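INFO  loader      accepted 1 record
INFO  loader      residues=75
INFO  predictor   begin
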Amino acid sequence: EAAAKIADAIGEPSPGDRLDSVKVTADFESALEAAASVAKENDIVLLSPGCTSYDAFRDFEERGNFFKKWVNSLP
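INFO  predictor   done
INFO  writer      dumping tokens
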């Protein structure tokens, strides 16, 4: 629900920023896939939700476990 508000608050990255891009996705799994598609070897993808995700997960622990399971399944 808050994706557009967060993206608007962050704004467009400027040349030289450490932030490379902002991508809004429909759901958590799509966000993970988008991150994996741009991450290079030795990059770090940090899970840092801007708000709760009770619409998709019971709690932060379930969300974190989903993230770990998904990351560990990457080739």
